[in-house]
Structure formats: C-alpha cells, structure tokens
Design brief:
Length: about 625
Amino acid sequence: KDCLPKGLIISELMSANLSYIKGPYGRTCDWVELYNNSDTSINLKDYGISTDSSDLGKYTLPDKTLAPGKYTVILLSERVDAVKSGYSHLLFNLSSAGETLFISKDGVVVDYAISPELSADVSYGRENGNGGFAVMTSPTPGAVNGSGVAEMSATPTTQTTQGTYEGSVRVTLTGAGTVYYTTDCTTPTQASTRYTGPITLTETTVIRAVSYENGKLPSKSLDLTYVVNEGVSLPVVSLVTEPDNLWDYYTGIYVKGPNASSTFPYVGANFWQNWEKEATVSLFEKDGTGFSVPCGLSIFGAYSRARDLKGFSCGFRDAYGMGTLNYPLFGEENLTSFESFILRASGQDDTKSRMRDVLMTSLVAEKTNVAVQKYRPVVVFLNGEFWGVYYIREKAQENYVAGNYNVTRAEVVMTGADGIDKKEYVHLVDYAKTHDLSVKEHYDYVCSLMDIDNYMDYIIAEIYVGNTDNGNIRYFMTPTTKWTWILYDTDYGFADANYDSVKDHLNPEGTGAGNAFSTKLINALLKSPTFKEAFLRRIAWQIDNIWTKENVHGRIAELEGLIGQDMKRDCEKWGRTYSNWQSHVQTLRDFVVYRNKQLPKFVKNYFGLTDAQMQEYGFKV
C-alpha cells in the first residue's frame, strides 16, 4: 500500500448497482468503499464526502472508527427504504454517467476518484488494492480489489431519429471499434449481426446495438425503436427489455412461472414478485418530440396483475443510468420531474370501456380539491409488438405528493387502506371515534387534522360512482397540508346505477363496501350536525355540478375520440369485438342517467329525510 495516499482513501465505488448489498425487497444503493491506509485508527466523522468541489463538506461521514488496514462500505441513496441493515448510509446518489467524488478534512481534499460512465454492476476502484483506478467487472465491496480494465467502449449512436414512420426508414449506426446489433431485443454480443451499413426497415423493429473495442469492456446497449406502418393514432410508448426478463419461465415478470397457484389471481406467480428488470422506455409524441431513457420495469397493480393485459411501472434510478425523468409528461411546465410513472391498462376495466377511472377522477378533479392522478392515453409497444391502449399515470406514492404539493419526498407521510401503519392517522381516527364530534371543540380539532372538504368530496364521489372496491385508498399529509385523500382506482365504479352505496359506504358497523375498509371516521363525523348538513348539501351539489348528463357524456365523447381508433386494433389483439367495446362505453352513458334518479332515493332512505328536507338540502325530488 506504499504507493497509495496515506490516511483515509477511496478504494472502490459503484454508481449503477443492481445486485450488490441488497436491502429490503431486493432494493439496492450506490456505494463507496473507504480504506484506512495509515497506522492509526480514524474516526470517519472528522471527514466530509461530496461530488461538489465547491462544497467539500456537504455530507459528513458517519461516526464510526476505522482501524488501520481495514475497509468500510457506505451506502449512498436518497431512499432510506433501500438500505440494508447494518450498513452506514448517506442521503445522496452517485451519477452512473460519471463524476468526481471527494473525501476531505477541514476543507482540504485528502483523496478523490474521477469515475467514468459505468454500466450496471461494474465498479471503479484501485486495481489490486494498491494500483491506479480501473473499471472492475467483479466488484468486491468490503475487501481488496482485483484486476480491472481501463474503460468501457463508448455507446454507439444513430443519425436516424426513433419514432413512427410510414413507408420505410434507413437506420444508420456509428460507434467506436466494431458495432454489433440484434432485432429480437436480446443484448448484442460478438456473435450477433455486425453492422456494415444502413439497415432498411419496412415494419416495426427494435434495434439494440453495442460497440466492442480491444482491451475495453463492451459498451452499453443503444436501444432504438422504429414504429413503421402501424397507423396508430395516439402517441406511442415503447418498452424494450431482454425477452427473458418478460417471458422466461423462472425469471420473466409477465408469466406465471413455477410457483403460481392454480386459480386466479395465481398468487406466487412471477408477476406477483417484487421484481424489477432493466429496460428502455421511449415516448414518441405526434409532433416528433419525446424521450428514450433507461429505466427499471416492473409489473404494476393488485389483482389486475393476474390479467392478460398487465400494467407496468417505469422507475428511474442511477443504477440504470438516470435517477429522474425530466420531461413534461402531462404537458405541465411546473411538473417535469418524475422518479417513476405507470402505464395503466384500466385494471378490471381493461375488457370493458378502458376509460372508467380516468373518466371519473378527471371529472371530480375539475370541481373539487380531491387529489387524483393525471393521465394521458397512449399506445404501448412491448419489445416491438403492439400491446394495446394504456394510460400514462402518475404513481400514487410520496413522489407524486412531492411533485404536486411542492414539498420534499421526505416530508410526505402517506398511507392507505385503514392507515394503521401511520401513528398520525391512527391518532386522528382514535380521537374521532372516542370523542363526541357533536361537540364543537371536538369537531374543530378533527378539522384541524384533516382537509374536511377534500374528505367530504372524496367520500361522496366514491358513493356516487358506486365503487365496490373502495378499500383501495391513498391519503397523505405534509407540513403544508392536512390529511388529504386521493381518488384512486375506481375501475369498479359506474357499473350498477341501482347499487345502494350510501348504505354500504356509510355502514355504521365500520366495514364499508365489501367489508373492505373502516368507516369509523365518516360515521364519527356524521355525528356532527355541522358536518352532516354540509355532507348532504354536498351530495346534491355534486349531482348537479359534477355528475350531470352533459358533463359525463361530454367527457366520454372526448375519451372515445382519443382512443377509439386504436381500440379497433386493441380489440383484435385481445380477442374482442369493437362493437363489444362500444357497448361498454354506452353503459357509462346510461349509468349517469339512471344514477341521478336513484341516488337521491338512497340518501333519503338512509338518513330518514322527508321530501321537504330533501328539497332544503338541494335535491330535486
């Protein structure tokens, strides 16, 4: 070790970790390995670590003593839920695109590493523990390093823009060394087709290309999608990943695999596992703009993941090459940063109207402050194959709240179902059910903890649409917001206009529709005359202002116009007729006509109201 700097030094680092030091649910972090190259013990808290030369002490190393000749590994991640127990941890990430990492003491740099771009599961460290820095194909966190290679080949480039084409397209590739490519979505090797000139395409094709240079690691894969002669109407999302990541019997995320139960929803199946696979996601807008970036691809949904048409989650992490997607997914200039988004195929509505949830939630969002997920319809191509009509949706998690409510992810307290995992929500419900909310002081205290108008509109919307799956709840609080509810996953709504959801959703036994969730809070609030009167008036107001025939039919027509053309192809793909889809859309139109007649009857019966009282509250009787 004589040739190394004395004192605390950087021995190894990893900026694109997928496989090492796995934390909860198999999550991984970036990491840096430090070594004490001195004759005395070192307390790490005396040192700073940073990727910013103008702020060397940005992060203080943990309060930990490192003996002479010993290694320690510090995990680096902005997500504490990825950290393996027993490891020290700092709240920042390394860039897999390459950057400089500094170790300093009293504002003076004592060691640094200039990391190049690194691919997944490749580290950068001192060769054999005492040499110069090199790329390591066999990382050794916590132990002496082995031999490395100088660097990675540069990723090939193309002069032919990805996207949608009519007729044909000639694709040109450029790369250092020799470029090899595939068109079956497998990762290219030196046994793949060698690029010798432009590739002419007359049908939709995925091209994956890598560069090989002597003495270097192969490059990262360049993933390109050309959607040719498909005649799609909507913008296109392309998902590209190694085919085994989807279809392999043992490791594919889309298949049942060896451990699935024999009946729906096939618990134990591969698609029920918390698996994420490396992929490339691209968006091709109609005007030629869009993006193509690396991501982690996983199956999204509850029971809907057992259906033929599954939802996807696209997560962005430095381990894949990009920690955040910076793009206005929904056309809003103030919402351009996403750590993830989902591609939703309408859950249990996938074989019906394919628009239930976005219909209901968008109408509620226009007239109330109930939180909802934004949406936009797209056509998905999976490894170059037309897969159907989906919706890009925000993922209802902490990052969604942070982006929409101008707070940090760490400031968000979020839960779902009965909320028993969050002490703040448990306190709210316990107080409400143990105090008489007809007493103004008690009611006012509850109102200080929750957005009462948001909650009222949320409950009424769930009642109106007749959602029988209303145990699927998300709600949150932040330093600037009280408890706030998200109208989420309403695919079972707008089904039966004669369903008495007032009785079910306000069930005083505290079980809710289908015994799915607690109704303790709403029943406690209804003991307050102030809340009860406002609640009844608000039901009438929603019927007259949100759920009018004109509003609902207008939004249905809008959505039908957006997805109708591509639903013809979707119906062919998934074995149904276009007329069947149209009949399900008509069911939505019929629902609102009958619901507006039936719901007031259910309200009147449940609350024991007279015709005069109903009129006083604003109902048309």
